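User: Predict the complex.
Assistant: Input components as received:
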Amino acid sequence: MTANASGTSGLTIREVELEAVERGQGRPILWLHGEEGVDPALAALDLLAAHGRVLAPSHPGYGHSPDSATVDTIDDLAYLYLDLLAARDERDVIVIGCSLGGWIAAEMAVRSTDRLAKLVLVGPVGIKVGDRETRDIPDVFALHPDEVGRLLYHDPARAAVDYTALSDDRLTVIARNREATALYAWEPYFHNPKLRQRLHRITVPTLLVWGAQDRFVSAGYYGAAYRDAIAGARLVTIDEAGHFPHLEAPAALVARIRAFLDERSA
Amino acid sequence: MRAWFFSENAYHLLPDAREYDSIRVKLPNRYYDPKVGADLYHRFIDEWKIAEDLGLEIMVNEHHQTATNLNPSAAVVMGALARDTKKARLLILGNPIANRREPVRVAEEMAMVDVYSRGRLECGFVRGVPYEISAGNHRPTRMMERFWEAHDLIVKAWTSHDGPFNWEGKYFHHREVNIWPRPYQEPHPPIWITALSPGSARDVGERGYVVACFLTGFDGTRVVFDAYRGRRAELHLPTPALDRFAYAALVYVGETDEEGYAGARKLMWYLESNKVPPQFTSPPGYHPIAATVNAMKGAVPGIFKMFQQPALEPLMDAGLVFAGNPDSVYAQVKRMYDHVGGFGHLLIMGQAGFLDHDETVKGMQMFVREVYPRLKELRPSA
């Protein structure tokens, strides 16, 4: 693993190349990003690195991680990261996943919790809650970008990015992140129809964290369904945060995660 | 040169554009009156029959969930035309095979039209415009990979005559493929494919199919045709004949320039009414990353600028519209022809919006009588 100036390094798992942020010392923390990708400058990563050794890879197609011919489903990503933990012989890992990353984390955990100590799902997607005509998750591919911003953020001004002020590299990352999200989440739309019935297999302590103002997938409807499917899981909300609490309220999120990590396992 | 008449079968009686934000994908169909629609279908089929009587070939396309085109199934309308016509070649351009769930069904439908018409089908395959993504409900990423797998399966279905074969590909699975009927033409109907970029033109050139450019103008078309020829030269394949190249434009021939321009302005309804928000024009993965980055920086390629604020003169200057009196139209087509190294098919978008039946027919008649004979004689300059 070699670090570069942007604070990321490269790793290869079963011939799949990944860009990753690795930061801090101590217990292993795997951070699985969502649709927004992982920004090495993310405050939440620095705050978390005070409590452990954070590894935050960009999934194939996101950030600067190359596209992969063999990895094109959430299922593939779940196995990829289980393989990553095995290849590095990581044990008692804290897995944290946000939104689409929460979906990946849940898919990992229903397959195997052998190397996991605790699971933190931040506004995870991935399950089907309502009936066939209920749109559990707004169709971001059919909504105006401004409306998507209003749904995702407590403060929609955060979504109003001035693209002309960004470097080509940053714009390329944003475009790649959107494309990769379409690759992984197009259909079934942001979920696996089988995941909900498998969540009972998660036997490690699990915390669900939700932005109190999440208008994309709400805590009361979607979060509650997730909580009810995982034995012993708790659902907590973070004030003044929408679908991405790690962007809008990083300190409150990390404080809540830290309290959960410090609890003795029940 | 062969000329093909096509019409988008538009439903033009729309509410004030301020009442809706998209003519594509989400415009409620309460704005569609099926009784008016029935009259329109019959009118457009009549116009295709008139095109045949005048000596033109026939082209049909398909779009979904849009008032700009009421042919959600090209096979259905071509089935009617296969029965109603006798001599014209019948081009479907085309089947959006990256958006169709069952390529074998496409193979069946196309074989049926080919037999029904006694071998007059020309079968096009298209990737489809970006607004087809949400309507087709199919993923916009890695589309061309899916497109070519669908193509391979269709061609194999057409050309296998000894009972079922098995297909377990990356995108399509079908264990007992054995279509009835098989195509009338041997080994199968001629294949056409649209291309907008040099990359896709190379893939078409390699296979020797007809490549078609839609409203790509002078330079956009030349780049595509050059890439097709270049790829064949690289592979030491025979130099392609002119009948491997097709260009589609809005065309209206009047007795005077003024009459021609007036007809063309009515055809421009197709561009003017194409009100589509960004989520449908740029689904993630449809456009290359570099093009998306340029768009984020505010750069709009010239040709799309013209679509945003369509005006006749720039559209004619760019070669998207051929209009005027017969001499003017001939000169405009010839200029495009000379610029791109020649082409063997002119696809005439000759009806749109408020261009009524008599005007549509008059434009066709003027073209056939006054322009077409000269185009048939066109040869590439050395």
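The domain at 9-262 of chain A is CATH 3.40.50.1820 (Rossmann fold).
Let me know if you want any component modeled separately.
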